[in-house]
Write a structure and sequence with these properties.
Radius of gyration: 24 Å
Order of helices and strands: HHHHHHHHHHHHHHHH
Transmembrane segments: 53-74, 80-102, 123-146, 166-186, 198-218, 230-249, 289-308, 314-336, 348-366, 386-406, 418-440, 446-465
Structural class: mainly alpha
InterPro entries: MATE_fam (IPR002528), MdtK-like (IPR048279), Membrane_Transporter-Flippase (IPR052031)
GO molecular function: antiporter activity; xenobiotic transmembrane transporter activity
Number of domains: 1
Largest sheet: none
Keywords: Cell membrane, Membrane, Transmembrane, Transmembrane helix, Transport
Region (Disordered): 1-26
Strand content: under 5%
């Protein structure tokens, strides 16, 4: 057969195809790198992208939590009250995870802004080792004191037995949950918002799919009620954790095996992480006081508060997403000395959370009872939950400002202002105010006291952050 093309022409065409493929790969890589480089490009576009994927992650987690509450509400009111008692302890344990993630992501984001990629890989490797060790010790130590802890929170009788059984199982998954959370914050610190968003959503979908089988039973699977809810959470998060580790090791190659400089990395991480942990511990302590005071008004009030908190989280998570999304943007631009971009991000974020706060309050005021009724149809629970929504959600926009400020401080490598603000909010102001409110107006006074505290501290935090940025700009 006669050749259609001479050999030289075929060789030339092959070279052209190879070069074309190379250019496409380089263009794709450049596009991906540009998307992750938060020191260049439109600030609003970066903030929208980061917030969008953060919302996907948080929404999936919140929806899974809400669906779990729905399932538990079908089981019984005692089980629903038991879940409400877990919030302070779970938030305390998660606060340690968040602190480690905040500390590591602050170092990573600023290192990315400086272009120090060797340090990024080193910190990622070391925080995984550090976080795994700490979370295992926390789970083991806490398991011995569960009954004492929940007794102090006001749980009694059947509710106390139920909440202890639930937390025994939940603690087994704490190390996996901790490292998954830390992993998501590290990915976002490098500018990769897409991967943690998708993987978190997958974990939540698995949770919702597994939960009904474990709670109500099916076929050979026995009905395990509240224990089944804990089992489904642990199993789903373990599967998500495996995928996160795969991305770190094989896809992004962000983890190594060298422990060189481990203590230096720990020092840098804990410089921000320890105050962040302390700050995160203060908030659950304040929540514990709130829960204890509400318990004095009966299990129905506690159950209503628990349901309302989960309903509230569906819309309020947007302001948390904005605050957490600003952190990597602030960190990278601080490392690159791009202070104007930081101020732009603050302004856009502040306007958005205040507008969103107004929309949230109107939504809860008009549709609050219907939203609560989807979870629990007990008229008393609906009344108690609605009482919180029409009072407590007045503070949503101000909580957003506080969240932006504290996340920005941590991203700047300045962990003490968030710690001081948290101490002022929960100990100096909130507890005395809600005690007064409880004395004169009952549980409604508790909710109103929380709103007043949020408004005052958010204004203080915002002014403090703006002054800190001005001082930082003068130094560079």
């Amino acid at each position: 057969m006669q050749e259609r093309f001479p050999a030289d022409n075929r060789s030339c065409m092959t070279d052209q195809i190879d070069k074309s493929k190379t250019r496409r790969v380089e263009a794709t890589s450049s596009s991906a790198a540009a998307a992750r480089d938060l020191t260049q490009g439109d600030v609003a576009a970066h903030l929208t992208r980061l917030t969008g994927f953060m919302m996907l992650s948080m929404m999936s987690f919140m929806v899974a939590s809400l669906v779990e509450t729905l399932y538990i509400g079908w089981v019984g009111t005692y089980e629903l009250a038991a879940i409400s008692f877990t919030f302070p302890l779970i938030f305390t344990l998660q606060g340690v995870s968040m602190g480690l993630g905040i500390g590591a992501s602050s170092v990573v984001a600023r290192s990315v802004g400086l272009g120090d990629h060797a340090r990024v890989r080193r910190v990622v490797t070391h925080v995984i080792v550090l976080g795994t060790t700490i979370s295992i010790l926390m789970a083991f130590g806490t398991s011995f004191f569960l009954r004492d802890i929940f007794s102090l929170l006001g749980a009694e009788g059947v509710v106390l037995d139920l909440v202890v059984e639930y937390m025994w199982i939940w603690l087994i998954g704490l190390p996996v949950f901790t490292m998954t959370f830390v992993g998501t914050t590290l990915m976002r610190a490098t500018g990769d918002a897409k991967t943690p968003g998708y993987l978190s959503a997958l974990g939540s979908i698995l949770h919702m799919a597994i939960a009904p089988f474990c709670i109500f039973g099916y076929g050979l699977v026995p009905a395990m009620s509240l224990e089944g809810a804990a089992i489904s959470f642990v199993v789903a998060r373990q599967l998500a954790f495996i995928l996160f580790i795969y991305c770190f090791i094989f896809r992004d190659r962000m983890m190594g095996i060298s422990m060189t400089g481990f203590f230096e990395s720990c020092r840098d991480i804990l410089h921000v992480g320890l105050p962040a942990v302390a700050s995160n511990m203060i908030m659950p302590f304040g929540m514990s006081v709130v829960t204890r005071l509400l318990a004095g008004h009966g299990a129905i009030v506690v159950a209503g508060y628990g349901v309302a908190s989960r309903v509230e989280s569906l819309l309020v998570m947007v302001i948390w997403a904005v605050g957490m999304s600003i952190a990597p943007l602030v960190g990278q631009n601080w490392g690159a000395s791009a202070h104007d971009r930081i101020r732009t991000a603050m302004r856009l974020g502040g306007i958005f959370v205040m507008v969103w706060g107004v929309l949230c309050y109107v939504t809860f005021l008009v549709l609050g009872r219907e939203m609560i009724g989807l979870i629990n149809d007990d008229p008393e629970v609906i009344d108690m939950a609605y009482a919180y929504l029409v009072i407590g959600t007045l503070a949503v926009g101000f909580m957003g400002l506080m969240n932006i400020a504290t996340n920005s401080f941590n991203a700047l490598g300045k962990p003490m202002p968030p710690l001081i603000l948290s101490a002022l909010q929960m100990i100096v102001l909130n507890i005395p105010i809600i005690l007064i409110g409880d004395h004169f107006w009952g549980y409604r006074g508790i909710y109103a006291g929380g709103v007043l505290t949020s408004v005052v501290l958010s204004v203080v935090a915002w002014i403090w952050l703006k002054r800190t940025l001005k001082e930082g700009a003068r130094q560079f």
